[in-house]
Design goal:
Blueprint lengths: L3 H10 L7 H14 L2 E6 L6 E10 L4 E4 L5 H9 L3 E4 L10
Antiparallel strand pairs: 1-2, 1-4, 2-3
Length: 97
């Protein structure tokens, strides 16, 4: 059973989740330019993840090119996952008006 503290943290998560394709592309490009490391979780798992870096973003074709994880097993899990999520602890500057 989930604790109340855990449920409270999950509610806060949605404060930082974005769905706008334009905003996602902007953040991905900024991460690429600043060479930030990201945590890529497979199927929203806290235990199945790899550290990656974004190498390029092609918003027109909905493509993000990342560095290759170390093991072929990790590559296969990422490619077969129905969803992946990326996160970083980087603080992003606010977008100007």
């Amino acid at each position: 059973m989930a604790s109340l503290e855990y449920l409270s943290d999950m509610e806060k998560w949605h404060d930082y989740q974005i769905d706008s394709q334009r905003e996602i592309s902007r953040l991905l490009r900024a991460s690429c330019e600043q060479q930030n490391a990201l945590k890529m979780s497979v199927s929203n798992s806290d235990t199945d993840f790899v550290a990656i870096q974004i190498l390029a973003v092609d918003a027109e074709h909905n493509e993000v090119i990342i560095d290759r994880p170390e093991s072929e097993e990790q590559v296969q899990r990422i490619m077969q996952a129905p969803t992946v999520a990326c996160e970083t602890t980087r603080r992003w500057p606010c977008a100007s008006g």
